[in-house]
Amino acid sequence: MDDFDPRPSDQFTFGLWTVGNPGRDPFGEAVREPMAPTHIVAKLAECGAYGVNLHDNDLVPFGASAAERDRIVADFKAALEDHGMVVPMATTNLFGHPVFKDGAFSANDPKVRAFAIRKTMDAIDLGVELGASTYVFWGGREGTEADACRDPREGIKRTREAMNFLCEYVRDQGYDLRFALEAKPNEPRGDIYFATTGHMLHFIETLDHKQMVGVNPEVAHETMSGLSFVHGVAQAMEAGKLFHIDLNGQRIGRYDQDLRFGSEDLKQAFLLVRLLEGTLGGERYEGPRHFDAHAYRTEDEAGVWDFARGCMRTYNILRAKARAFDADPQVRELIAEARDEGVQALTRSYSSENAAALRGLELDPAGLARRGLGYERLDQLMCEHLMGVR
Ligand code: GCO
Ligand code: MN
Ligand code: MN
């Protein structure tokens, strides 16, 4: 055990579907045996995780009888209890069954939409029974290949109706549960509605109970399309809407790789951890650090636990690096912002006096433009911290 080995207080969580991923892909069969959810709970606890998250059907198979469901849930709860693990987040599988081939909440057939909402109500009941306080919505099938099939505005409206309906359901049951919406640009659909965290943030503002809805951004999903994940997360945090986060590794322009956290683009991973931990001084993210990733297809079960420990250790190492970076006097000097309270006060808010004073202000654009900002030194310092020589 060293300083970077995970502890429950780090609040690391994994989905049953992540470490339980058997390595099936569009070109090949599973390479690992399925693992029982109770076994996953025991092994994750041994690795130092805090909790485990699940889709309804990760635990209770589709179509199980009520008696079967209750038996499975009781066994699972006993395993959680035995190993001191919690279920902070739950979600619905609205993508696996062929009934969702045209979408779930946005499908053209109202019977499919009704089935999706009913399945989600049941899955919310399950999540709450297991103690979840966050409920994730990832609309993997909510999109199109043949865009002529509907007016895309209908897809958006139907999703709003479903969200409003389900928010009311949660309120009606008296559940203490918040929703977190997860964006993805494509895969498995050609194009998915609400492609980015930014799209989701706006959509949330149009909901009836927007205060109970936030986002669940995923590293891979913004990175696939070449966007800055750190900027998307920052916007969510600034809006008070970062309710959950899916951490993994991804290279730009590829299919959703779901790699071990930090295994690609360490610099972005560092900047993300720095943001979440608030080492620069901003507010810290207090929710669980969830890994939505899976082990390489080359691995056996031992490799899966190496993968899980790797995600958590990398996060902890980056947290230590972020603290050291933001405490480095050279870094602090380089990022110390110019302070001129008088000038700042003028543009903080509009008044006709401020506007008039602004017109009269002595400003020297050529002089301001000539100054070098030292960002080459700053970025090199960051690289040196990351490379372990500072
Ligand atoms: C994906 C998604 C999913 C969701 C999960 C929880 O690309 O497959 O990231 O893993 O996060 O369904 O809603
Ligand atoms: Mn994903
Ligand atoms: Mn995800």
TrEMBL record:
The active site is at H55, D58. Belongs to the xylose isomerase family. GO terms for biological process: D-xylose metabolic process. The gene is xylA. GO terms for molecular function: magnesium ion binding; xylose isomerase activity. It is found in: Cytoplasm. Homotetramer. Mg(2+) 1 binds at E182, E218, D246, D292. It comes from Engelhardtia mirabilis. It holds the Pfam family AP_endonuc_2. This is Xylose isomerase. It is an enzyme of class 5 (isomerase). Keywords: Carbohydrate metabolism, Cytoplasm, Isomerase, Magnesium, Metal-binding, Xylose metabolism. Its cofactor is Mg(2+). Mg(2+) 2 binds at E218, H221. The lineage of its organism: Bacteria, Pseudomonadati, Planctomycetota, Planctomycetia, Planctomycetia incertae sedis. It catalyses: alpha-D-xylose = alpha-D-xylulofuranose. HAMAP family: Xylose_isom_A (MF_00455). Its EC number is 5.3.1.5. Binds 2 magnesium ions per subunit. Residues 41-262 form the Xylose isomerase-like TIM barrel domain. Its main location: cytoplasm.
